[in-house]
């Protein structure tokens, strides 16, 4: 593994841990040249369904996009990184267990909303207000009333 700091190809694993649920392996590595440490993660390489956008385009599923959209909704909210990672893993697991080759982007949006609702009600309302593109204040009020119940 190449060092991200000095690009030296010689790095050594100094610590290995398996995640609690066994889904990935975390490795601490140390560079042989600059002696800086960094973390790598090993995950199984699996094929996710293609995402079908509203305009009919098909794109590759990207975990980074999912993380970015959830982090935007969760900005300045009291939710830990571990909780967000867990939510993303549940969404990914659901996508894999569906056994489909393609999935509509709005279906992924619904999965995100379900996870956000469990994590933080404010983040859920933030995401839903953009995702559902409300036309007027009454639609927004209905959503807020639903969350209050």
Would you write up a description of this structure?
The chain is an alpha+beta fold. The protein folds into two domains: 11-42; 50-140, no CATH class. The protein has helices spanning 63-73, 81-98, 105-119, 121-131, 137-148; strands at 11-18, 25-31, 37-42, 50-52, 58-59, 102-104. Strands 1-2-3 form a three-stranded antiparallel sheet, with no helix packed on it. A three-stranded mixed sheet has the order 5-4-6. Strand 2 and strand 3 (37-42) form a beta hairpin. Helix 2 runs antiparallel to helix 3, helix 3 runs antiparallel to helix 4 and helix 4 runs antiparallel to helix 5. The protein starts with 10 loop residues before the first strand and ends with a helix.
List the helices and strands and how they pair.
Blueprint: E1 11-18, E2 25-31, E3 37-42, E4 50-52, E5 58-59, H1 63-73, H2 81-98, E6 102-104, H3 105-119, H4 121-131, H5 137-148
Parallel strand pairs: 4-6
Antiparallel strand pairs: 1-2, 2-3, 4-5
Helix pairs in contact: 1-2, 1-4, 2-3, 3-4, 4-5
Rg (C-alpha, Å): 19 Å
Number of strands: 6
What order do the SSEs take from the amino end to the carboxyl end, as H and E?
Answer: EEEEEHHEHHH
Domain module count: 2
Span between N and C termini? 51 Å
